[in-house]
Specification:
mainly alpha
Length: about 70
């Protein structure tokens, strides 16, 4: 995942898109996924909703920069 995320970041930078915002949001999403996968952490509706929101924002960012 890390290589792909880095390549997307380079792509966004080269396109003049907001790389910092992407980096921030992908970091939040990665943190939530790590917690869900590797910690004794229950995913509730708020965490799930936040993950979905971040995913939608990231997808829109990528579409706008393509």
């Amino acid at each position: 995942h890390e290589v792909l995320i880095n390549q997307i970041g380079v792509f966004l930078k080269n396109k003049g898109c907001d790389f910092r915002d992407f980096n921030n949001k992908i970091g939040q999403l990665k943190k939530l996924r790590r917690r869900a996968d590797y910690e004794d952490f229950q995913i509730d509706s708020m965490n799930s909703g936040h993950s979905l929101t971040l995913s939608k924002i990231l997808l829109k960012m990528l579409k706008n920069c393509a």
